[in-house]
Amino acid sequence: MKPRHKRFAFIGLGLLVLGVATVLILNAFQSNLVFFFTPTQVVSGEAPQGRSFRIGGMVEDGSLVRENDGLTVHFIVTDTAKRLPVTYKGILPDLFKEGKGAVAQGQLGVDGTFVASEVLAKHDENYMPPEVADALAKAKASGAQQSKSLVVPDGRKGSL
Amino acid sequence: MIPEIGHFALILALCVALVQGFLPIYGAAVGNSSLMAVAKPAARTQFLLVLTAFGCLAYAFADKDFSVLYVAATSNSQLPLHYRLAAIWGAHEGSLLLWTFILTLWMFAVTLFSGHLPETTRSRILGVMGLVSVGFLLFMLTVSNPFERLIPAAAEGRDLNPLLQDPGMVIHPPMLYMGYVGFSVAFAFAIAALLGGNLDAAWARWSRPWTTVAWCFLTVGIALGSGWAYYELGWGGWWFWDPVENASFMPWLAGTALVHSLAVTDKRGGFKVWTVLLAIMAFSLSLLGTFRVRSGVLTSVHAFATDPKRGLFILVFLAIVIGGSLALYAWRAPKVGLGGSFAMLSRECMLLANNVLLVAAMGSVLLGTLYPLFLDALDLGKISVGPPYFDSVFVPLMVPAIFLMGIGPLAQWKKASVPDLAKRLKWAFGVSLVSALTLPIVMGNWTPLLSLGLLLAIWIVTTSAIGLRERLAHVNGNSLVERLASVPRSYWGMLVAHCGIAVFIVGVTMVKGFETEKDVRMNVGETASIGDYTFRFDGTQDVVGPNYTAARGTFHVSRDGRETTVLYPEKRRYPVQNQIMTEAAIDPGLLRDLYVSLGEPIDDGAWSVRLYHKPFIDWIWGGCFIMALGGALAISDRRYRLAWRRQEPAVPVPTRAARRKVA
Predict the structure, then answer these.
(1) Taking CA atoms, what residue in A is nearest to B523?
(2) Chain B residue closest to A8 (CA)?
(3) Where are the domains of chain A?
(4) Where are the alpha helices (DSSP H) in chain A?
(5) How many degrees, rounded to 5, is the angle at CA A86 between CA A85 and CA A91?
(6) B385 touches chain A (CB under 8 A)
């Protein structure tokens, strides 16, 4: 091969890798997009059925109920305007408390209950998850606005 | 008084750093050797001054001096001494001091081991490091002073975040910073070469061991952080693709690419321009990582303060360092010239592919990490990018890189041939393919990913074995031991580091394929089974620690009726910050970990409990330590020891090119 051809081959190879990486990235973004909704939006029916999404808000005081198996819990997440019942089976993070902020990811059940597959709470007394702060602020500014927030599923370290 | 001494030492260090940053570089430019001679004593003085400051802060922590704001904010009189000392790097200001201290430590090392460097090169290197140090000292003295007083003094400190009160936390940040800051040496070498316009094989040979040392530290630091997350967070996970982890992983990817590209520059004189760019990249990512993690841009345990002045300073500093070095690169790099030519199939080309893939992987991680920040900054909503994205992008990019890792070391420099490679590698390929397909079936669970992981791991090991065998055939010596001993350490280093990757892959594959987890409610005396193991819960009792109270559970673990171990997981309460902490109990083993963590108390002494059986998980960290060991072996090679002993500038050996290199 002539040097010029070789250079073209190298550039081609580089572009190929770049192209593959781009396709992978776009594909991953596409299939992992999860929307974030406030309780108000969920209650008013803006959230999708049969697709995973995130909600955030305050855990209502006195709403935490534990079933007999010791693992299934029911609680209510509120943005002060609307209340959304949530069911979760598993161990809650250490800082999950009534009256504190929490973010949950899961799907909406047919009865309007949010079935969470993951519950996140942050490891600091005074910390407010940004999504929760956002939800509360929105509810304050008269609820029914469209959320522009997109959420791609986060790891469990989000539970810090 | 002591904190003021520390503060004053920092001010003096800044003055010295300014002198060190400007005079030697100017001296090297105009050829004034008395100006260049300033570099060495200045670097050593600066080291002593920052050491003094560091010592003063350590004293303030040991002495429980709550009139120092930083001490009051991150420690408590109940906190044991070793954690009080670790609290020095428990938050923003102290972390910066640690960073600066390690920077001066590296400078000091450069003054010790640079006898063989030309005077101009050494003064430029120390000058560049001095300039970096100016930035950090200025940052500390203007907006984040660790010695700031709190008047009147607090009666009691606010305590260190309980998550950080752990032996892993004591060593993880210093290790990580040794790695981050170590890349500053490679960076300084690169900038010095750009300034001087002399990028040759000798330059690569000098900067290679420094880069490798930094890479080793970074590898160990990341492994320690991952291990800490595994046992301390109570979730049993070892990598979360959390922005904080990514911040340390990106310099590692760039650094790994740099280590390989330096090999080409050293041996063949190629990839010069690219190597310089990688050195700049690795250090820029380290800076970005340090600031992103410690500045409050990221909200997690790692992030502390949010102060707009700090943010502005950081942005300006990053812009100057990264922008400045890239501008210098754009200006000077064309003069450096290209290396020797090589064919499409050659070791150079394999290493190039390795570099492209590593950098592409780094770019995808960077995108996934910065994208949410951009959206947030532009007020387009809050998003976070998690494991599914990274898994689906990172794995496909790494698979070809690891496959090439088996071939690369066996390919000839300059030009290799396909039939020859195929002949030498057919056994390795056959063995890995067959064992990767059958092993999972023997273990009773076949999945494509399991086979793929094992294929890659066995491929690395078998190709390494072939490489070693061929190497042995070409060295002199009568007995096998003699011949093994005459294989250069740098070659051993490469083999060991590559096998570390194999061990790591086995760990990841086996954990993903065979781990079992169970969340259960357990009454006192009740049993639960996971894997082949039976756990019996014998209730909890209250225990009192130095600065916490805890409920400690007792679990008797048995297998086939015989007791394996007793585990004591804890649920701790730290009263100062009123935090609850889960302290998991782990029975580690070569082939599996057993992991128990307490959930919540339910009633009548019953608890919700999380049980894990994790096969081969310790191989993940074992693999990382083996990689670092490989790096350590490589730098103990004879050629570097000789170079350090020699006092005149090292000359490239002309016979090197003539000798046929097999591997």
Answers:
(1) A70
(2) B344
(3) 1-32, 33-152
(4) 3-32, 39-43, 130-140
(5) 150
(6) yes
Q: How far is CA B376 from the centre of its chain?
A: 28
Cα(A133)–Cα(A135) distance, integer angstroms: 6
Provide the domain limits for residue B442. 417-514+619-637
Can you tell me which residue has the tokens 């010790």? B112
Q: Which of residues 36-95 of B touch A (CB under 8 A)?
A: none
Any idea of the CA torsion for B420, B421, B427, B431, to the nearest 10 degrees?
A: -160
Check if A71 contacts B (Cβ < 8 Å): yes
The residue whose two tokens read 């050797």 is B33
Is the ipTM, as predicted for this complex, more than 0.85? no
Query: For position B628, what pLDDT does the model report?
Result: 97
With a cut of 60, say whether residue B433 has pLDDT above it: yes
* Residue position matching structure tokens 């009080």: B84
Q: Which residue has the higher pLDDT, B230 or A47?
A: B230
Residues B50 and B77 in one domain: yes
Q: Write down the CATH superfamily of domain A33-152.
A: Nucleic acid-binding proteins (2.40.50.140)
Q: DSSP labels for B171-212?
A: HHHHHHHHHHHHHHHHHHHHHHHHHHT---HHHHHHHHHHHH
**Nearest residue, CB atoms, A149 vs list B383, B393, B602:** B383
User: Mind spelling out the 3-state secondary structure of B427-443?
Assistant: HHHHHHHHHHHHHHHHH
**Across chain A, which distance is largest between two alpha carbons, in Å?**
77
Q: Which of B384, B388, B602 sits opposite A70 (nearest CB)?
A: B602
Record: contact B382-A14, CB cut-off 8 A: no
Q: In what order do the strands lie in the sheet with B592-601?
A: B516-522, B607-615, B592-601, B585-587
Average pLDDT over residues B548-559: 94
Cα of B507 vs its chain's centroid, Å: 19
Contact at 8 Å (CB) between B617 and B593?
Answer: yes
Total tally of structural domains belonging to chain B: 3
Chain A residue closest in CA terms to B381:
A149
Which residue in this structure is represented by tokens 């291990």? B227
Residues in B closer than 8 angstroms to A148, CB to CB, are 380-381
User: Do B344 and A160 count as a contact with CB atoms less than 8 A apart?
Assistant: no
Q: Which of B520, B577, B600 sits opposite A92 (nearest CB)?
A: B600
> B370 is written with which tokens?
């910065």
If asked whether residues B140 and B259 sit together in one domain, one would say yes
| pLDDT exceeds cutoff 50 at A12 | yes
- Both B51 and B157 in one domain: the answer is yes
Which residues sit opposite B607 in a β-bridge?
B522, B601
The residue of chain A nearest to residue B232, with distances taken between CA atoms, is A160
Answer yes or no: do B300 and A157 touch at CB < 8 A: yes
Assess A126–B contact: CB distance below 8 Å, yes or no.
Answer: no
pLDDT band, residue B531 (cuts 50/70/90): confident
pLDDT, one tens digit per residue, over B120-156 is: 999 999 999 999 999 999 999 998 899 999 888 888 8
Q: Is residue B659 assigned to a domain? A: no
Chain A positions touching B397 (Cβ under 8 A) are 20-21, 24
Same structural domain, B536 and B486: no
pLDDT in tens, A101-125: 888 888 888 888 999 988 876 544 4
pLDDT band (50, 70, 90) for residue B663? very low
Closest alpha carbon within chain A to B387: A155
Cα gap B183→B285, rounded to integer Å: 10
Q: Which residues of A touch B240 (CB under 8 A)?
A: 155-158
This prediction's pTM: 0.89
Q: Which residues contact B642 (CB under 8 A, 6 or more apart)?
A: none
Asked if A123 is an interface residue toward chain B (Cβ–Cβ < 8 A), one would say: yes
Residue B22, domain member (yes or no): yes
Q: Considering chain B, what is the average pLDDT of its residues?
A: 87
The CA distances from residue A18 to A21, A26, B221, B377, in Å, are 5, 12, 30, 27
Which of A9, A69, A155 is the closest to B387 by Cβ? A155
